[in-house]
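Encode chain A's predicted structure.
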Amino acid sequence: MTTWSGTAAGWTAAGQGPDGSPYAPWQPPTDVEQSLYEAKTRGDWVGYFDVLAGADLFHALPRPWVEANPGYFGFFPYWDPRTHRHYVAILTEGMLPCPAPDPVFFEHSLGWYAEKWDNPDWWLAVNPGSPCEAYFAATPEHRRMWAHHAEKVSWSARRGTLRTLRVGGVHQGPVARGLACGALLCVNNGSLWNAMGWHGTGFGGERRRLEEWWGITTREEWMSAQERLLKGEMSNFAWEFVLEVRRAIAREYGGPVEIDHWRQVVGRVVRDRAEQAAAQGAEGLPDPGAEIRRLQQLIGRIVRYEARFRADGLLREGEYVTSVLAWDYGRASKMARWGLGARFCDVTEAESAVVRAGRVSRVTYKSWEAFSAGYILGRCLHFDDEEFGDWYENMLRAHQILTTDPESPWRTIPW
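Encoded structure for chain A:
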């Protein structure tokens, strides 16, 4: 295998500076750069490519070019006068710079590069200028080897893992707390929970995510969705209504709330509101009887979910979900980052939204565990339909990791 590698001043892993003083040991930003560095140090290029094959790889493109060529991808190599070669630079996740308006980064796999590479005379530069850098020829024969490594990768292996940005990430304070409100999704997707400078799946990937899942294609639409999530207005109003009734009963009577009592009070509130609206001359009102039956069925679903939560350790015995607003607040934490990755906002706006997500979550809940139960119930009511399938199981696994791993933000950031 043809390789070339070196280190740039200031990025040395160990050694001395020009004045003879020792450099501080290099700290790899994530597990990926750590593994690349260890493989390179051993001279294990097979292992190096195994790591690359399982990593998200990013390539910078000029934003004006991207917007002038929608749906297309271009390679923009640079000339290195030291080696007299053209290189296409790719960066792993931990080596990405803070998001800026231009350039933007696109994410692809090693297998994709093996298939789409334009010019066999260009070389591949991995994290150039860092201690884990390496440079590889990209002839058809070499790219067949890249593809071989890519075929061995299981992309599901990284899902369901807690990943932390060790250098450049936020670890304590209001921003970290807000980021941790999105940690369930980060663990589920295997993304860095504390990366405020979010690139996610790259500029194109984040735009596709927002369009496909949220119908968001503009900054204005992103701003509207972000604000509605932070105000708890995105999820189904009925969910929070019935839980609010239960909270009111608990405050008035104390102790556990019987399901029949809960259903009766919900029915009475609905009928009273319908009578008040009719007395005020409102027209086109829904049938209160049908509405009561719908809400009472919802109460049954919630009770059954809570029973499963207790059996699986999401709730302690005798506990119940106080609110599902965490479903909106947790997604608000992520929406801020998705908007940044899609360049619908800047870092300052995204950080402000993340801090707000942490603040409203603290007001509504008393612990990370209570927040988690509220988030998971909202997700299940929206997606799961009492199947207790992947929509639930994935969140249960993420909850277990976040509440037990010593490095979890839910263990290191006080509520």
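The chain has three domains: 3-157, 174-235+325-412, 237-312.
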